[in-house]
Structures are given as structure tokens and as C-alpha cells.
Design goal:
heterodimer, A: 382 residues, 7-stranded mixed beta sheet, 5-stranded parallel beta sheet, B: 291 residues, mainly alpha, ABC transporter involved in vitamin B12 uptake, BtuC, two-stranded antiparallel ribbon, two-stranded antiparallel sheet, 11 helices, globular
Chain lengths: 382, 291
């Protein structure tokens, strides 16, 4: 009993201290710097998915730096606060709270879908504008204050089917997908539905799971026997690297095509396997062209080639800038949030992932490129 | 034709399981313990190859020797440090220690190499073998051949040499073997050394077949190989070979004809069935307790 009393007293003391700390945090940061817009973003900076969060953070950092060097917007400088949410919904909630304490007035999504749902729910209560670079699950952009840079999973699947039909890339399509992954299964479903609608023949659907993602000989054999002339891979780069190298070993010479998840497959496959990737097609809004200013600036800053996630996040910051320019809003306006959200549907952003406009749904209207891998490099495909 | 090509996929997969299972069954047969870290020693062997060829630029044969030496030393050291102090304790204690060693190795690799998978350098340049419409990758053909050679060599070693005789004696009765002047510690160390060297070989062929190695690469094949060893009768060397091949074929056929998602469930369920019908596995011997 005595112990419990102690515990309670300790808990109360701790909470008082924490609240105190939060309050001083608010007092000193938000509102005092009139000419600073605090953008709060979160993503996994540690753990298995850390590459995504780090890319998003770096893409946003680069955009913020460029905008500030050019003198800011409406006399306002941008400041990025980025928290680690480990791609975990619970951590995303505390990351959001930390950012709010730091005076966040615009949210930069959360990097991954699950975490983004939590962040978005909080942001909806606060009424602030959120631009999510990379959370592709449909529900993430459901609230009115949320806008998205990347494609949703279903949109990507349907778009892929349409492109294949229109450009006549294949007539009999086989799909290999990861049934245990929402991203992959979401694209596969939309792809098959759309294909049925536009009379694109899907000859076989071959599934795998995250427990059986190293040996694909049976699936590849089935694809070969199905008589397919195109294999669609709505999966991530690592599994694609396995599939492509094994297809080469088995002597299967069919055209392969993937979505934006395949971004990074050249690095994953490694130099030893470059030949297995020859001619593979990618349908993606972004690919790193060596001569683009963004790619050069990113390489100078971080020494690596930007991926999809970095590009999406770079565009998200520029979309925020465009909304500020359009509305003329400054962070001290009492109706700053309303002005910004209204402006998002009026702007057009020429980003590194394409030219985008948004409607009230928060989904971007943009196109994707088809790129082809030749000698371990991406080239545009016509 | 469909069936034959799936059968070949199964044999390719099974030859890897068989190669890993040989190490498992050898250690179990002699030391009477399940070395759950065996799969992770394979991962260490494969990473040794990656580091020595891709990072240090050493020639392939040096890398192969380094990999075998590395795994052998690792096997002997883990035995000394983790298992030997437990020689007299319950089998369960040793089993849990083995699981601990397995996690230790995985997390060390995670710390050193990061979570993303690394591509394995191409060390054999063998074109695939075609018979009519059927094809089997060159790596699989070599793996199968090497597995058979190792199986025969191991059987000969255990049945025909003095060291092998000592191993069999230790396996039957440690105290009696000691009384006969056999050094139990040395024999068990030798068993671990051979078992781990086999793990290095398995790592090389796993890497060559699948092309990518990550910190957790060893865990699933390790479990499958354990199942293969039990399937064939744990402790029996030809049993491990047969168990591995059967398991691979079973996995491939259930993927092809039943469901790609359920194949693992089917594989593990079939183990339960085999153990119900024949508790010692396909080639396992019933050892009578002499009173």
C-alpha cells in the first residue's frame, strides 16, 4: 500500500514537471518568431524502414535550405522539425505532440501510411495543413486538411493497367505480388480490376508472402507456362532483385515492369547482377536524371542519389511554399490554416515528381513516366 | 512438363536444405544437441565471402578458405563458450542457449552490416543446364553434386576413421567413451568444427544460388533444414540428404499446385504427420536403452 502511494506521488510529480516543460516549450518557441514557419515532419529514422524516413527528411531539408537561401516566402523563413516515429503509429502520436510543442504550423505528413493515419487524426483536430509526401494508403488523405504528393496504391495499379494497354507494352500480363503487404496487395487488386474493365488479359496472379520471399522458381515457372508477354511486379526492390536474378538464371526472357516500389532496384541488385535488370520497365513519377538540378544539389549535400521518397518530400515543401505565395498568408495570421488549405486547391506545382494540382479530395493530379533500365541506368522509354 | 519443371525447382531448393541439414544432423548425432545457431553460422560464412571479395578484393579461392576457417573457428568458440559449461545440464537449457547464440549472431550482423541485404559476388560462372524445355540453374546442379559428395565423405569419415569411431562412441555413451580413453571434449570440438565448416560451404552455395545475404538470411533455411533433418531421421546422414530433397520437392509442389501462401504450413504439417507415423523419421534408428 505504502509503495503505491509513493508511486502515485512520484507520477504526479513527474507529470507536473513534464507539463511544465511542455509549457515553457510553447512559450519560448511558438509565436515569438514572427517570421518563421515551422514545418513538422516525422518518419522512421531508425529500424528496418529507416531508409524511407531518412530520404524524406533529407529531401525536405534540401528544399527548406533552398527556399531560405532565396529569401523565404512572404518575408517568412521555413524551419523544419523532424522527429523519428519508427514507422509506428504510437510513436507517431508522440512525435506529433513534440512537433506541436515546437510550434508546428504545417505538417509534413508522416512518411509511412500507418504512422500517417495517427498524425493526420491529430492534425485534423488542430486544423493545420498537412502535406504528406509518401503515405500511399487511401485513408491518409481523407480529412479536408490533408494533401498528398505520391500516388495512392489503387491509383497506381489502375494507372499501370491503363498505360500497358494504351502503349501496348503487353497483351497477356502475369502479376507476381506480395500478399502479406498492403502496398503490394492494394496495387495488385486495382490493377486486376482495371485490367478486366479495359480488356487487358491477366493470365496469372502469383502470390508470395514475407515468409517466402527468397525462392521464386515456382512462380516464375508458372509465369513462363502461362504464356505471358509481360510480368507486372507491384512489389519492393529487394524482392524484385530476387525475382529478376532468378528469372535470368532460369533463362526466362519476358518483359518485366514494376511500379514506384521498384525504385532503388539497381542499388539493391548490385553490380554483379546488372545484366538481370536489362530492359526492365518502371512506372514512376520520379527517377533520378543525372543532369537535373535537384539530383545534383541532393548529391552535393548528401553524397547519395535521391530516391522517390526524397523527391516526394522535396515537392511537398515546395507545395507548401506555393500555397503561401498564392494566399499571401503569413504564420501570424489568425486564419493562416484556412487560407493555406484553401490555397492548396488553387495552386499548380511543377515539382521534380511531375506537375501537380489538387482538388478537395487531397489527391494529386499528376502523370508518371515510364523509364527503362539500360546498362544499370534509367533512361526514358517511349 | 509442368510437373517435371516444378520437380526440378524442388530439387534445387532441396539440395540447399540437404546441405544445411547435413551439418545439423551431424552435430545432433554426435553431441546430442540441437544447434539452432547453425543457420546463422551459414549467414556468417556468406558474409565472410562478401567482405573478402567485394570489400577486400581477394581472389575467390582465398575467400572460400577464409569463409571455412571463419565458420570453423566460430563454431568451436561458441561450443567452448556457450555449450561446454552446460554439458551436464538439461537438454532444454542447452537448446535455449543455442537460440540465444542464434539471436546474438543475427544482431551482431545487423549491427555490422545493417538491415538491408547485400548482393553476393558471382563466384561460379556456370551456365544453366537445359534438357529440352527443362532447365536447371548451374548453381543448383553443383550444389546437388557437392551435397552428395559431402554426404558420402561424411559417412565414410564417421564409419571408417578412428576419429569417426570416437565420435560414434561419444554419441552412444559419453562416460563409457571417456573410460575407454576417448577425449570427449576434443571429439565434440571436432564435431562442431566439421559441422561449422559444412555451414560455411552451405553459405557459399546459398549465396551463389539466391544472390543476396542479410542478417536474417540463415534463420528460415535453418529452420527448414532442421525440419529436413528430423524428416529424414535426425542423426542419420543419408537421412538428412533425403529429408532435404523431399522437403524441397514438397515445398515446390505445394506452391505450384495448392497455394504459394500455404506452402510453409504444408511443409511443417507434413513433418507432424511423419513424426506421428514414424517418430524417428524416415531413416532414424530406434536406440534401445540397455539396462
Amino acid at each position: 500500500m505504502k509503495k503505491n502511494v509513493f508511486k502515485k506521488a512520484f507520477a504526479v510529480a513527474m507529470s507536473v514537471m513534464m507539463v511544465g516543460a511542455f509549457m515553457t516549450g510553447c512559450g519560448s518557441k511558438s509565436g515569438s518568431d514572427e517570421n518563421v514557419l515551422v514545418i513538422g515532419g516525422s518518419g522512421p529514422l531508425t529500424g528496418d524502414y529507416s531508409t524511407y524516413g531518412i530520404s524524406v527528411k533529407q529531401g525536405a531539408e534540401l528544399a527548406v535550405k533552398e527556399i531560405n537561401e532565396a529569401g523565404g516566402v512572404n518575408g517568412t523563413e521555413f524551419k523544419l522539425v523532424f522527429e523519428d516515429d519508427m514507422a509506428d503509429p504510437t510513436s507517431a502520436a508522440s512525435a506529433y505532440a513534440t512537433m506541436a510543442d515546437n510550434g508546428m504550423q504545417v505538417g509534413l505528413g508522416a512518411t509511412t501510411s500507418g504512422a500517417c493515419l495517427t498524425a493526420v487524426a491529430e492534425a485534423e483536430k488542430d486544423g493545420i495543413l498537412v502535406v504528406t509526401p509518401s503515405a500511399s494508403q487511401v485513408e491518409c488523405a481523407a480529412p479536408e486538411n490533408v494533401f498528398r504528393i505520391c500516388f495512392t496504391d489503387p491509383l497506381q495499379g489502375a494507372y499501370a493497367a491503363q498505360v500497358i494497354k494504351e502503349k501496348n507494352i503487353g497483351t497477356k500480363v502475369a502479376v507476381i505480388y506480395d500478399k502479406s503487404n498492403d502496398y503490394s496487395a492494394g496495387i495488385q487488386k486495382a490493377f486486376v480490376d482495371k485490367a478486366a474493365e479495359i480488356n487487358l488479359e491477366v493470365v496469372t496472379n502469383q502470390a508470395f508472402t514475407n515468409q517466402s520471399n527468397t525462392d521464386f522458381s515456382v512462380q516464375l515457372q508458372a509465369v513462363k507456362n502461362s504464356g505471358a508477354d509481360l510480368v507486372f511486379l507491384p512489389i519492393y526492390a529487394q524482392e524484385a532483385a530476387y525475382i529478376l536474378t532468378q528469372a535470368q538464371k532460369l533463362g526466362i526472357n519476358i518483359q518485366f515492369m514494376g511500379g514506384d516500389g521498384l525504385d532503388g532496384v539497381i542499388e539493391k541488385a548490385g553490380e554483379a547482377n546488372v545484366s538481370a535488370l536489362e530492359d526492365v520497365l518502371l512506372l514512376t513519377p520520379f527517377f533520378a536524371k543525372d543532369d537535373s538540378d535537384f539530383v545534383k544539389a541532393y548529391r552535393d549535400e548528401y553524397g547519395t542519389t535521391p530516391d522517390q521518397f526524397a523527391a516526394d518530400s522535396y515537392d511537398a515543401v515546395y507545395a507548401i511554399k506555393a500555397a503561401m505565395e498564392k494566399s499571401g498568408a503569413v504564420p501570424t495570421d489568425s486564419d493562416f490554416n484556412e487560407k493555406m488549405i484553401a490555397a492548396m486547391t488553387e495552386i499548380e506545382v511543377e515539382g521534380v515528381t511531375g506537375t501537380m494540382t489538387w482538388d478537395k479530395s487531397g489527391e494529386p493530379d499528376k502523370t508518371a513516366y515510364i523509364v527503362q533500365i539500360k546498362d544499370g541506368k534509367y533512361v526514358e522509354f517511349n | 512438363m509442368d510437373f517435371l519443371s516444378n520437380l526440378i525447382s524442388g530439387l534445387s531448393l532441396g539440395s540447399i536444405y540437404a546441405l544445411i541439414a547435413l551439418g545439423y544432423t551431424m552435430v545432433y548425432g554426435i553431441a546430442k544437441m540441437l544447434n539452432f545457431a547453425h543457420g546463422d553460422i551459414i549467414m556468417v560464412g556468406a558474409f565472410t565471402i562478401i567482405v573478402s571479395i567485394s570489400t577486400c578484393g581477394l581472389p575467390v579461392w582465398v575467400a572460400l578458405i577464409l569463409s571455412v576457417v571463419m565458420c570453423t573457428v566460430l563454431g568451436v568458440v561458441t561450443e567452448r563458450v556457450a555449450y561446454k559449461p552446460l554439458r551436464k545440464s538439461e537438454p532444454l537449457t542447452v537448446l535455449i542457449t543455442a537460440i540465444g547464440v542464434s539471436y546474438l549472431l543475427q544482431n551482431l550482423a545487423l549491427l555490422i552490416f545493417g538491415s538491408s541485404q547485400k548482393s553476393f559476388p558471382s563466384i561460379f560462372d556456370i551456365s544453366s543446364v537445359h534438357i529440352g524445355d527443362l532447365s536447371m540453374s548451374g548453381e543448383s546442379v553443383v550444389t546437388l553434386a557437392v551435397t552428395i559428395i559431402i554426404m558420402i565423405a561424411l559417412s565414410l569419415f564417421i564409419n571408417k576413421t578412428r576419429a569417426g569411431k570416437a565420435m560414434r562412441a561419444v554419441s552412444e555413451d559419453k562416460e563409457a567413451a571417456e573410460l575407454m580413453g576417448i577425449s570427449v571434449n576434443k571429439t565434440i570440438s571436432l564435431t562442431f568444427a566439421i559441422g561449422s565448416a559444412l555451414a560455411a560451404v552451405a553459405g557459399v552455395f546459398y549465396g551463389a544460388t539466391y544472390g543476396f545475404i542479410g542478417p536474417y538470411t540463415g534463420s528460415m533455411p535453418g529452420i527448414k533444414a532442421f525440419v529436413a533433418a528430423v524428416f529424414g531421421g535426425i542423426g542419420s546422414i543419408p537421412g538428412a540428404m533425403i529429408g532435404g530433397l523431399l522437403l524441397g520437392v514438397l515445398e515446390s509442389l505445394s506452391k505450384a499446385y495448392i497455394s504459394t501462401e500455404l506452402s510453409d504450413a504444408i511443409v511443417f504439417a507434413s513433418l507432424i504427420v511423419v513424426l506421428l507415423v514414424k517418430p524417428t523419421g524416415l531413416l532414424g534408428k530406434v536406440i534401445k536403452e540397455k539396462v
